[in-house]
Amino acid sequence: MKHIIPVTINDEACELAVEPNRTLLDALRTEGALTGTKKGCDVGECGSCTVILDGKPVNSCLVLAVEVRNRHIQTIEGIQTSYDEVHPLQDNFMRCGAAQCGFCTPGIIVMAKALLDENPTPTEDEIKFAIAGNICRCTGYTKIIEAIKLTAAQQNQKME
Ligand code: FES
User: Fold this and answer.
1) CA 64 from chain center: how many Å?
2) pLDDT in tens, 69-99
3) From the CB of 149, is ligand 1 less than 6 Å away?
4) Which of 79, 107, 136 is the last residue of a domain?
5) 106 CB near ligand 1 (under 6 Å)
6) How many domains does the chain have?
7) What is the mean pLDDT of residues 122-137?
8) What residues make up the domain containing 93?
């Protein structure tokens, strides 16, 4: 039997119709048609399914959809500033060459967004710690860290 779960996804109120054992990841990708959130390992080890749940990053493969009743979720689709304007993190990932195959990129960008929302001036070690659960098999992380540092610097410059 399906449960109807009222939830806010990317600032839009909606309902997910889900079986009790459905993960948030699967519900987002199927019922929500939000396929930017990727399914890598499905057991909480790769970070490709990262979304922001009530302001905190979570592995959506480890959360049941029935647990998100009346909560707020932000996915990679909701990170974008507007329809024709990407988020500075997305822009800097492109500028820095921080994506190669791109499979891990949504999860890392969402994780970086959560980090910068909470800590606008992270040290390199804090960036490394934040993305430690996001596995990338292509880039070697140098460009990813560069893109996150650049975004933080730009955002802090704007606030001065
Ligand atoms: Fe969720 Fe890998 S798919 S952590």
Assistant:
1) 17
2) 999 999 999 998 777 889 999 999 999 999 9
3) no
4) 79
5) no
6) 2
7) 97
8) 88-159
